[in-house]
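Exam prep: given the inputs below (a chain plus iron/sulfur cluster), describe the expected output before reading on.
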Amino acid sequence: MGKAKAMVSACLVGINCRYDGKSQLRPELVECLRDYQLIPFCPEYLGELPTPRLPSEICNGDGAAVLAGAALVLNRQGDDWTPYFIKGAEATLRLYQEVRPDLIVFKAKSPSCGVGQIYDGTFTGKLRSGDGVTAALLRQKGACLYSETDILQNKPEK
Ligand code: SF4
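Solution:
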């Protein structure tokens, strides 16, 4: 039997896809997932944003509000990047439906990948409740979402 499959936010496994051109490698997460075949994904890359890029946050809402047309994703200069984030979410959903992973792990707090908590749109490091745009779309489609913090605090059973 093949290994169980885990989709994981690419920056967490050492891919330099963050807005600042760096990764957010979490070696302890990679170790925790050593029994899985890892399938990295980056919604912002899939949405065709460049790397590096300006940081962006969801303003006046969360990912579900963005999907409902009730909030925008703005970069730090105030440009509307909502279409890129929606495109990236839809591309990630297609990948999810193709791969049918046993587990999906998202980078906490990101405007794309955040699960349950995201930056609040003020670019001050403050948090608000809610998912990022991609996490919200996958949640709406019935996916069971974990952040890296969830995994490291309570390793899931395969
Ligand atoms: Fe990491 Fe997700 Fe941001 Fe890509 S969109 S850099 S995977 S947190």
